[in-house]
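Entry 14. Ran structure prediction on the chain below.
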Amino acid sequence: MPNINLPKDPVILISFVNTQLRDNYTSLDDFCANYIVEKNDLIEHLLDYGYQYDDSKNQFLSR
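Output, structure tokens:
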């Protein structure tokens, strides 16, 4: 589960994460390190809402 500094609503969370990845981070690892969140927890959390991480595009996409 994402840390308390990230949005709770899954739609807002996916928008926030993808915007951050696009504008500020070259990888999900860098994003997770900065926001102190476990990468696998974030991936699993967003997968529950139908989004999977695409490493080649550095963003979460709808399944």
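The longest helix spans residues 10-23. Will compare against last week's run tomorrow.
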